């Protein structure tokens, strides 16, 4: 049998018990004392016994009330928790999430991230900003994006970074190139090859210059381009070779390319998820982050 008892009546009993005052309880619950008394009376009638002992000067919890009070408190907590859970579900299902990602992730992992996310949460609207990593981080700083999937680079004190991919540089060449079939090489061994480089000032050229020093300066400068896609297209035509992060090789599966591990030194960049330090993510963004972590982590560190 379902009793005709409201959560308001139980809340009234719990509040009076805690404050030991009808006047204070009525004020806290924003009701009149007479309305509060009616709630308590109705609850007592439903249970068939008094819950409070009243005198002209005081109010205290009865023997039965002492038995019921812990259960009543638990009912209130469970009720509030259930409401919070429902509100969270509504926010997640009908929310909107805005994020940034660098061009590498946009051209490789983003389709899988979005597909998985929209399959699990079809009602959440998604806004994507494809940028360079510095621009992606800037959008997190100014609030245009809740999070970014990008390279952290030199970082920023107001941002937090979760590293998920250690994106190691490799050499890529056409399958007809003499290097094709090699398992590994070194920077010294390939320094005289016809390199297709990203133009001076790009994040990649700065990274390679920082790690390779004078060795990088010895590379040919006859052909410089602005984007990895252009690099791969030219390599695919047999024009030269290129040093690219491993993840980039997934951009152009239509080309007859091979990749070769390169070391002495090993050069890599760190990719992951960037958020604003101390700023909570929305429920929708938390769900997106979880999906992105599961997919990006497959490529490991």
From TrEMBL:
GO terms for molecular function: DNA binding; DNA-binding transcription factor activity. Keywords: DNA-binding, Transcription, Transcription regulation. One of its GO terms (cellular component) is cytosol. The keyword Membrane does not apply. InterPro entries: HTH-type_LysR_regulators, LysR_HTH_N, LysR_subst-bd, WH-like_DNA-bd_sf, WH_DNA-bd_sf. Residues 12-62 form the HTH lysR-type domain. Belongs to the LysR transcriptional regulatory family. This is LysR family transcriptional regulator.
């Amino acid at each position: 049998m379902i009793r005709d008892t409201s959560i308001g009546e139980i809340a009234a009993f719990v509040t009076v018990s805690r404050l030991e005052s009808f006047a204070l309880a009525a004020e806290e619950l924003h009701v009149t004392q007479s309305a509060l008394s009616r709630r308590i009376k109705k609850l007592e009638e439903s249970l068939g016994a008094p819950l409070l002992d009243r005198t002209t000067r005081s109010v205290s919890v009865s023997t039965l009330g002492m038995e019921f009070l812990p259960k009543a408190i638990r009912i209130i907590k469970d009720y509030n928790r259930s409401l919070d859970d429902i509100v969270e579900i509504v926010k997640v299902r009908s929310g909107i999430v805005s994020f940034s990602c660098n061009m590498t992730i946009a051209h490789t992992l983003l389709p899988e991230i979005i597909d998985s996310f929209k399959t699990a949460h079809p009602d959440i609207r998604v806004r994507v900003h494809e940028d360079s990593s510095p621009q992606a981080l800037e959008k997190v700083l100014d609030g245009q994006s809740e999070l970014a999937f990008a390279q952290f680079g030199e970082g920023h004190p107001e941002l937090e970074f979760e590293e998920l991919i250690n994106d190691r540089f490799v050499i890529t060449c056409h399958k007809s190139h003499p290097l094709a079939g090699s398992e590994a090489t070194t920077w010294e061994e390939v320094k005289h090859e016809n390199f297709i480089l990203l133009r001076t000032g790009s994040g990649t050229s700065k990274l390679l210059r920082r790690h390779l020093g004078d060795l990088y300066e010895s590379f040919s400068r006859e052909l410089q381009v602005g984007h990895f896609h252009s690099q791969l297209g030219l390599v695919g035509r047999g024009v030269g070779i290129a040093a690219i992060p491993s993840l980039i090789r997934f951009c152009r599966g239509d080309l007859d390319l091979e990749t070769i591990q390169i070391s002495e030194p090993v050069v890599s960049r760190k990719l992951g998820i960037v958020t604003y330090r101390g700023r909570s993510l929305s429920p929708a963004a938390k769900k997106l982050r979880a999906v992105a972590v599961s997919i990006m982590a497959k490529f490991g560190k």
